[in-house]
Structure formats: C-alpha cells, structure tokens
Specification:
The protein is an alpha+beta fold and 141 residues long. The chain has two domains: 2-59, no CATH class; 73-139, Glutaredoxin, CATH 3.40.30.10. 51% of the residues lie in helices and 10% in strands. A four-stranded mixed sheet has the order 2-1-3-4, covered by helices on one side. Helix 1 (2-12) packs across helix 3, helix 2 runs antiparallel to helix 3 (36-46) and helix 3 packs across helix 4 (50-59). The relative contact order is 0.11. The model has no long low-confidence stretch (mean pLDDT 88). The structure holds FE2/S2 (inorganic) cluster. FE2/S2 (inorganic) cluster is lined by residues 76, 78-81, 106-110, 113, 115.
C-alpha cells in the first residue's frame, strides 16, 4: 500500500527527476518522514541514483529521515539570534528535551531573537523559561 502511494506521488509528477523536491515533500507529508525504503522507491521511479537522492535529502534541513517523536522544535543558531542568547537557549533545549530539538540557521525572525519554531508556530524572544512554558502549553500538560 505504502509503495503504491509513493509510486502514485511520483506518477503525479510524470516521474520527472526535476520534480524530486516536490515529490520528497509530498512523500514526507504522507508518511511523516522519508524512510530508506521510500528513497529507494523514489529513486527507482525517477530513474535516478540513490546517491543523487541522498544528496538532496541531506542538503535540505526540512527533510526528516526518522519519524519525529512528538513535536519538532527548531532553535535558531544563526548570528543574530546567537548574539541575544540563542546559544544558551539551544544548549538548554538540548540538555532538557534532547530528542526533537533541531538546529536551524535563521528562521527569518532575526529582529526578535532568539527565535524558535515549535511545530508550525514561530516564536521570538524565547528564553529557557519561556520555552518550558510554550512546550507545556503544546503538550497540554
Ligand atoms: S538569525 Fe535567528 S531568526 Fe534569523
């Protein structure tokens, strides 16, 4: 069933290698992440090498290779956020929440750093204390 869905997605783009990024997004949206098997199936459908597809997947930060455990949290580690406490926040988040914390380099919210993306929601001026509050609200506890 899963393979059929992947082939359908590839087919909807006429199995065009030029549409690889769109296909990867669609497959990730459907299954939540890009498994090794899914990448093999896409490579075969588009008649491209596995090395090519791995190169694209590892280049873009948005592609997930594993199922996400709970909410995806991205902490900005770029310069503007770093200058206002982003590094401390990133270390705090990694120490406290470990899995599910991802580094990102600029969320386009530089004037309101440190910036954090929790799921699809962007937050500015996030302190460790505020991060705890936001994550508690998200988890509903
Ligand atoms: S540097 Fe952090 S949002 Fe741009």
């Amino acid at each position: 069933m899963r393979k059929i869905n992947i082939l359908k997605i590839c087919n909807s783009y006429n199995n065009q290698p030029d549409a690889l990024i769109e296909i990867l997004h669609d497959v990730q949206n459907e299954f939540g992440y890009l498994s090794k098997d899914a990448l093999v199936e896409i490579a075969e459908a588009l008649n491209i090498s596995r090395a090519d597809i791995h190169g694209v997947v590892s280049f873009y930060d948005d592609f997930r290779r594993e199922p996400s455990q709970g909410i995806c949290i991205k902490v900005c580690r770029a310069e503007a956020c770093q200058a206002v406490g982003g590094e401390d926040l990133a270390h705090y988040a990694q120490d406290k929440y470990d899995a599910g914390i991802h580094d990102v380099y600029c969320l386009g919210n530089c004037a309101l750093g440190p910036a954090v993306l929790i799921g699809d929601n962007l937050y500015g001026r996030v302190t460790p204390e505020r991060l705890d509050v936001l994550l508690k609200q998200k988890s509903g506890s």
